[in-house]
């Protein structure tokens, strides 16, 4: 007697939700990212216009001068939705936590020269205020933007910034054996020291920008594109050569985070600039405006961080940023 | 299915983890024959077949180790040439 084993294939009735079928066709199953993020935001039947903003609907494409035929044409290349985002960050948090414990347990800061610690106090600790501002700005983008692809990317970014502000804070606490001295000094420097004032002014002007896409350009393209390479990369390398490798260990996350963030800002620049001539002009206008302003504002900080070399370092970082944005479709930038 | 003799194939499980790999094969091996069978996906091509790390990473949105392929691999035919950037099958 022979037994015949036959395999039966059961085809699913549909491969994904209707909204994704309309977008991507019905040929292959949608990715988790697509299912989690696309078209989540309501587009119609809003009840009343908010009294504090009578000219706009709750979600309104006219809150920015940028015009997109389809606001979902930008997709996050990291494909972050709640699950993937939290898993990725939790792994990084484990590493960071381990590094902090290690530095604390081995008293690694005892071996760091006092000048290096002082440089970290003066340059890195005030950055917690910059990170907090970045959190505010990205929350603002989340609130004003159109399309859930944008709001997820901005909200995750906002949470990251709060996390980084906390890492900087913990670094400040570790520097002084859990005393708040450098945090207080950092706050005072941020409020009063002349080298930080122009940057603080620029950031406070960003708080009140009306156009959320301009804020996106100013914060996530330009300011981050200058601060991270300049201070978390170049400045920390300088500290490392002077005996401050311990500090680099505690800000490892910022370095990784920036490399990751560049991927979606590049993708966003590319998609938006490609959409139309008008978008491309707006992007280059905003990039030029904020590069001028923020390079000027960061110059005293760069000089404080690198000494005479500071202006040169900042100019290189600026050149890298503009070259990258140009490559991703934002043409007409003022290169030196 | 062309010349049966030099055909290489790669069979993987039909699941969420394998999907970016299948899509990468589809992209990088234009004339590959991809058959969906119950539970598995069979990918055949005459001569050679390559899975590129970069293409899979684009699909998946994160860093991908070529060795992750083995987690969904069911069977294969061909001589394997594997390094950090690709997994390639061909007959020597």
Number of domains of chain B: 1
Helix percent band of chain B? 10-25%
Distance between the termini of chain A: 85 Å
Order of helices and strands of chain B: EHEEEHEEE
CATH class of chain B: Alpha Beta
Q: What is the CATH topology descriptor of chain B?
A: Phenol Hydroxylase P2 Protein
Helical residues, percent of chain A? 55-70%
* Fourth CATH level, the homologous superfamily of chain A: Ribonucleotide Reductase, subunit A
Class based on secondary structure composition and strand pairing of chain A: mainly alpha
Unreliable spans of chain A are none
Which oligomerization state do the chains in this entry correspond to? heterodimer
Order of helices and strands of chain A: HHHHHHHHHHHHH
Overall tally of structural domains of chain A: 1
- Return the structural class of chain B: alpha+beta
- Mean pLDDT level of chain A: 94
Q: Overall pLDDT of chain B, averaged?
A: 92
How many strands appear in the DSSP assignment of chain B? 7
Structural write-up:
The complex is a heterodimer of chains A (336) and B (92). Chain A has 336 residues and is an all-alpha fold. Chain A has helices at 18-24, 32-37, 82-105, 114-124, 127-144, 148-175, 181-192, 194-207, 212-241, 245-250, 252-275, 277-306, 310-327. In chain A, helix 5 packs antiparallel against helix 6 and helix 7 packs across helix 8 (194-207). Chain B has 92 residues and is an alpha+beta fold. In chain B, the strands form two sheets. In chain B, strands 2-3-1-5 form a four-stranded antiparallel beta sheet, covered by helices on one side. Chain B has a three-stranded antiparallel beta sheet with strand order 4-7-6. The chains are: A mainly alpha (336), B alpha+beta (92). At the A-B interface, loops of A face loops of B.
């Amino acid at each position: 007697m022979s037994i015949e084993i036959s395999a039966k294939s059961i085809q699913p009735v549909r491969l994904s939700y209707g909204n994704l079928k309309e977008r991507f066709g019905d040929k292959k199953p949608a990715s988790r990212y697509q299912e989690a993020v696309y078209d989540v935001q309501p587009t119609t039947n809003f009840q009343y216009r908010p009294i504090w903003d009578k000219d706009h609907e709750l979600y309104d494409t006219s809150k920015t001068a940028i015009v997109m035929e389809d606001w979902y044409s930008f997709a996050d290349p990291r494909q972050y939705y709640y699950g993937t985002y939290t898993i990725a960050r939790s792994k990084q948090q484990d590493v960071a936590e381990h590094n902090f414990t290690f530095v604390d347990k081995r008293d690694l800061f005892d071996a760091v020269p006092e000048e290096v610690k002082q440089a970290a106090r003066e340059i890195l600790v005030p950055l917690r205020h910059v990170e907090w501002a970045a959190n505010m700005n990205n929350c603002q983008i989340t609130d004003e933007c159109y399309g859930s692809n944008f709001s997820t990317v901005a909200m995750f970014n906002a949470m990251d910034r709060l996390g980084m502000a906390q890492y900087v804070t913990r670094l400040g606490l570790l520097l002084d054996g859990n005393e708040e001295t450098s945090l207080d000094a950092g706050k005072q420097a941020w409020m009063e020291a002349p080298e930080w004032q122009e940057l603080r002014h620029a950031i406070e002007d960003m708080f009140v920008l009306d156009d959320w896409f301009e804020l996106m350009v100013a914060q996530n393209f330009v300011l981050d594109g200058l601060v991270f390479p300049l201070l978390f990369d170049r400045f920390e390398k300088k500290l490392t050569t002077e005996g401050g490798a311990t500090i680099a260990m505690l800000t490892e996350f910022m370095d990784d985070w920036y490399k990751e963030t560049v991927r979606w800002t590049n993708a966003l620049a590319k998609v938006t600039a490609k959409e139309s001539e008008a978008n491309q002009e707006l992007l280059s206008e905003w990039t030029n405006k904020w590069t001028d302003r923020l390079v000027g504002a960061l110059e005293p900080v760069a000089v404080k961080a690198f000494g005479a070399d500071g202006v040169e370092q900042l100019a290189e970082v600026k050149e890298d940023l503009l070259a990258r944005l140009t490559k991703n479709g934002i043409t007409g930038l003022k290169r030196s | 299915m062309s010349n049966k003799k030099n055909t290489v194939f790669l069979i993987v499980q039909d699941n969420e983890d394998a999907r970016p790999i299948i899509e990468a094969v589809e992209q990088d091996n234009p004339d590959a024959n991809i058959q969906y069978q119950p539970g598995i996906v069979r990918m055949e091509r005459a001569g050679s077949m390559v899975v590129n790390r970069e293409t899979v990473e684009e699909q998946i949105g994160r860093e991908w180790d070529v060795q992750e392929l083995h987690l969904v691999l069911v069977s294969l035919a061909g001589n394997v040439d594997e390094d950090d950037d690709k997994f390639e099958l061909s007959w020597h």
